[in-house]
UniProtKB/TrEMBL annotation:
The keyword Transmembrane applies. Residues 75-131 form the DUF1653 domain. This is DUF1653 domain-containing protein. Keywords: Membrane, Transmembrane, Transmembrane helix. It holds the Pfam family DUF1653.
Length: 138
């Protein structure tokens, strides 16, 4: 079962807002340090704000990288024999049609409507699935 439509976009927006929040905190600390009137205090506040921002930005990007790298690629065999690798699922901007983005054997990146990618078709009078997931044993 797939996630509700748009949930990944919402999570990305939350992550972006965390980064923006870090910038706002850094500016607030800088302004507070400047309001003190002490150049050393302002400088220390600025350095601390930058370090905090860099730390949070780095940990956020590493979390995204690990979640992407930890997934093994899912491979599919076309009913005519070709093999492709699932890159991701997406939706069109205009009408939110679910799409499958995949890498073909020749390395090209292609997309297909999800319904079409997973549909059953008739070949030589018998129903077959257009793409079938390849298990690790295959």
């Amino acid at each position: 079962m797939s996630k509700p439509e748009g949930i990944e976009a919402q999570l990305d927006r939350i992550n972006d807002n965390i980064g923006i929040g870090c910038v706002i905190v850094a500016i607030a600390i800088l302004l507070a340090g400047g309001a003190i009137g002490n150049g050393i205090a302002a400088g220390l506040c600025f350095v601390l704000a930058v370090l905090l921002f860099l730390f949070l930005a780095k940990s956020e990007s590493e979390g995204k990288k690990k979640s992407v790298e930890s997934k093994d690629p899912i491979r599919y065999r076309h009913y005519e024999g070709g093999i492709c690798e699932l890159v991701c699922e997406a939706a069109t901007e205009r009408d939110h049609t679910a799409m499958v983005i995949y890498r073909a054997e020749d390395g090209s990146i292609r997309c297909s409507p999800k319904d079409l990618f997973f549909e059953r078709i008739e070949v030589d009078g018998r129903p077959v699935q257009r793409y079938v997931e390849i298990s690790e044993r295959d």
